[in-house]
Amino acid sequence: MSTAVPVVRLTEVFRQAAQSRIITSSHKINQGIIPDLSRPESDSDFYFVPAEDPEIAVARIIDLVKTRIPQRFGLDPSAIFRFSAR
Questions:
Q1: What Rg, from alpha-carbon coordinates, does the chain have?
Q2: Which terminus of the chain has fewer CB atoms gathered within 10 Å of its CB, N or C?
Q3: 81-85 long-range Cβ contacts below 8 angstroms, 24+ apart
Q4: What is the mean pLDDT of residues 50-60?
């Protein structure tokens, strides 16, 4: 766990369906298993966005949270959670 930034471990499901890709992927990650990172064939609540360079990763996350996700799903950017590997 990081000592540089606050870290929270999610252990309880609140609003997602049990078979949500967020839920199934989170359980696998917590068990040390790599989840299915392939592109979903239809709408999904979990997407993996690869980036080999930290600066590229930051730029992609900012674009997703500020622009792409809000436009696609009609959400306020402040309502979007970001998960990243440690």
A1: 14
A2: C
A3: 83/26, 84/57
A4: 90
